[in-house]
Amino acid sequence: MKKIKLKVPATVANMVCGFDILGMAVHDPYDEMEFRLLETPEIIIKHTDLFGLPEEPSGNVAGVVLLKMQESLNLKNGFEVIIHKHIKPGSGLGSSAASAAGAAFGANALLGNPLSKEEVVHFAMFGEELASGVRHADNIAPCIYGGITLVKSTSPMDIIPLNSPDLFVTAVHPQVEVKTSDARQILKKNITLKSAVEQWGNIAGLVAGIEKNDFSLIGRSLNDVIIEPIRSILIPKFDEIKTKSLQLGALGGGISGSGPSIFMLSEKKETAEKIAQMMQSAYDEIDIESFVYVSKINPAGIQIVEEA
Amino acid sequence: MKKIKLKVPATVANMVCGFDILGMAVHDPYDEMEFRLLETPEIIIKHTDLFGLPEEPSGNVAGVVLLKMQESLNLKNGFEVIIHKHIKPGSGLGSSAASAAGAAFGANALLGNPLSKEEVVHFAMFGEELASGVRHADNIAPCIYGGITLVKSTSPMDIIPLNSPDLFVTAVHPQVEVKTSDARQILKKNITLKSAVEQWGNIAGLVAGIEKNDFSLIGRSLNDVIIEPIRSILIPKFDEIKTKSLQLGALGGGISGSGPSIFMLSEKKETAEKIAQMMQSAYDEIDIESFVYVSKINPAGIQIVEEA
User: Which segments constitute the GHMP kinase N-terminal domain (chains A, B) (predicted)?
Assistant: First the structure.
């Protein structure tokens, strides 16, 4: 195999009460990444999109992952990667994770899959480190494993793929900037034990609901008493959109990643689409451009769509 | 049905990282409770044990539950209950919960089961209120439902029975007094977000492990970074017993309820029994009398063993 093309999905990290531990893959939006195995140890990164991301390998999220793999695995080969990015940087939908996870997954595939999934996650995390300063796997894990993943720990690596319920995801990305660093800094360092206990009841309920395919339990558990009340202030119309989504029949939802995107889970496609319309109208009203996406939870994660 | 006899199991609340939300039923120890339906609205409580518990209904854990049921359900009947208590009061193994849950379950059975399990829990909670001042369901829920239960909320009542893994439980009850009020007061009101995130990763892992029957994951998740480091100071030899249990092959474990009992989970009966011996020896060494129990997780909870 000398050439492959990947479809790399967007991901929702910090799933409501599952702050820092639960994430899921969706179908839409997604990036496309074309890989070519080179005989020389060069790393070439090209972007066809207009986001102006750096193409110098050491400054590119995919590039640093490939450089790290080259070094650690003593590779004589190089890689050319053409990235067609559709997941907007800064959306909170795992744009940098897609590049990082795609790079590690694609290189591994071209080399004949010498690495386990956990090792692919390990290398992809260097891309997240470049993008955000933190070597986290919140988005990378669901991107690579698909479905909903629990990142119990990254050191040692302990990723648990959960069941992938047959639910629709509506995501809206309003065109406002929420810096990940601001979203981190705004959080309180200390919380009350009482609120923590409430939160872990919800997490336990959410994981049980996911594993049992109990949609009502998932809905009753999608409740974040610690992070959302603080971070949602940074996202215009968050409360209105959440309230209206629940009225329209959403099981629940919240901030995607550290925002500004908001996601909602629904049992029916019709509900998910009504929510999408409502979200767009809500931002139209205040002249904020927004992009909405409706798709199912993506049980597969990154997929090879062409190979030669 | 005019007479029944119940076997009412001990329970382990606050399952390690599942503080205030996760509990499980065991087979041993257990109480026996004999019920007789009376034509007159009298409540008669008798104890055959020597624990000196009050028999006046309004001051007895089972008695207040029956009084509350009588009042709420406008019963013309009364009940005679003979309690053979084997679960020692103050052990942290759900002794008061057994009396409370047994009373509500037994009365409901004699009346032809007009109440749902959630309603039985509701009435039993009045017994816990008398015993500890707090109307909690941490022990009552697993006692009534069996297996491992998640008490997501008691208001509104939201109890989720989880899977019941085929594991052995070793419990040791050292004869030292840990007052529930002291065990509550010693806890910090505030915790760091960082430790809370670690804790909810463990809870998510524990619930996933329970649902998937993944014993390794259960073991990796039985880790409490918030409550145990504080409360374990009240229990002599806690650290030594935990370390040695893990060395002997336990998956993990911790404080049962608010102590002083300690429990450990193991895959094999042989391991569970070795741990029991080690626990008893550890307390023998320092001249503290102790009682040890080895049984499986009890998937059924309270059982009717005789009826007439």
Answer: 65-147
B 170-229 residues with CB < 8 A to A: 187-194, 196-197, 199-208, 211-212, 217, 220-221, 226
> Does any CB of chain B come closer than 8 Å to the CB of residue A18?
yes
Confirm or deny that A109 is annotated as ligand binding. Answer: no
Distance CA A209, CA A224 (A): 16
Dig out the tokens for A93 from the structure. 């939908």
Examine residue A260 and say whether the peptide bond preceding it is cis (omega within 30 degrees of 0).
Answer: yes
CB contact under 8 A, A188 and B192: no
For residue A281 the two structure tokens come to 């109208």
Cis amide bond preceding B29, omega within 30 = yes
- pTM of this prediction? 0.95
Side chain identity at B166, as an amino acid letter?
Answer: D
- What is the C-alpha to C-alpha distance for residues B174 and A165, in angstroms, rounded to an integer? 45
C-alpha span between A215 and A217 (Å, rounded): 5
Strands A22-38 and A78-84: antiparallel
pLDDT score at A46: 96
Q: Which residue of B has its CA nearest to A21?
A: B201
Cα of A193 vs its chain's centroid, Å: 29
B167 touches chain A (CB under 8 A): no
Residue B263 Cα distances to A241, B82, B200, B235, B266, angstroms: 46, 29, 21, 12, 10
Q: Is the dihedral of CA B81, B92, B27, B112 positive or negative?
A: positive
Alpha helices (H) in A114-256, listed in sequence order:
117-132, 140-145, 180-185, 193-212, 215-221, 228-231, 238-247
Over the stretch B167-217, which tens digit does the pLDDT of each residue have? 999 999 999 988 777 888 899 899 999 999 999 999 999 999 999 999 999
- DSSP-based three-state secondary structure for A89: coil
* Tokens matching residue B296: 């499986």
- DSSP label at A180? H
| Count of other CB atoms within 10 angstroms of residue A50 | 7
SS3 content of chain B, % helix, strand, coil (to 5): 40, 30, 35
In the residue annotation, B180 being an active-site residue is answered as yes
Local structure of B97: helix, strand or coil: helix
Distance between CA B163 and CA B147 in Å, rounded? 7
Instruction: Map out the domains of chain A with their CATH numbers.
Output: 3-161+299-307 (3.30.230.10), 168-296 (3.30.70.890)
Convert the pLDDT of each residue in A140-155 to its tens digit.
999 999 999 999 999 8
Report the alpha-carbon distance of residue A33 to residue A106 in Å, rounded: 8
ipTM score here? Answer: 0.94
How many angstroms separate the CA atoms of B173 and B153, rounded?
A: 29
Q: How far is CA A38 from CA A45, A83, A308, in A?
A: 12, 17, 14
Q: Annotated binding residue at A181?
A: no
